[in-house]
Amino acid sequence: MNMRKPLNNAIYTALIAGGLTLSGTAFAQSQGLYSADELTDAEVFSSKQPDKVVGEVEDVLLDENMQVNSLVIDISEFLDFGQSQYVIETGKFTVETIDGDDKDEVEYKVTVEMTEEEISQQPEYTNDWWSETKEATANAWQETKQGASSAWESTKAATASALDSAGDALNTAGEKTEQAAENAANETEQAMESAGNKAEQAGDEIANETEQAVEAAGNKTEQAGDKIANETDQAVEAAGNKAEQAGEEIDEETNN
Question: Considering only CA atoms, which of 87, 122, 91, 103 is closest in space to residue 36?
Answer without folding.
Answer: 103
